[in-house]
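User: Could you check the structure of this?
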Amino acid sequence: LLHSYLGKELLLPTEMRRRHLWRSKCFHCTCERCNAEEDPLRIVPCRWCALEKLQLEVVFKPGVWLRREPSETAEKVLFLPTGVRLSAHAAEGDWFKVRVQEEGDLEGWVLAHG
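Assistant: Sure, the predicted C-alpha cells are below.
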C-alpha cells in the first residue's frame, strides 16, 4: 500500500482505523502498522491527553500575568514571576489554563509567549 486513505484518523487506535476504512472504503487494512502487535504512534499523546501531565515554568522575564479569561484585556489576577511552576489542564490558541499550586491551587489563564 503506497497511499493512505486516512487523514486525522491516522492517529486513531488500530481497530478504529480499520472500522473507518471498512465503512468508507470497504476493505480491511492489513498494512504493517495495522498488523503490528503494538502501534508505535500510540506512545505519542494527543494534545488533550498531554495536557493532563503538562507542567510549565514561567521563563519570561520578569514574569507573566495570570488572567481570569484567555485575553490580554481580561482582568489580571496575579503576577507570576520567573521560576513559578504551573500545571496546565486546558489550552485555547496560545493560552493555557493553569493551576498555581503555590497560591492554594489558584486557577487562571497565561499566555504562552509572555
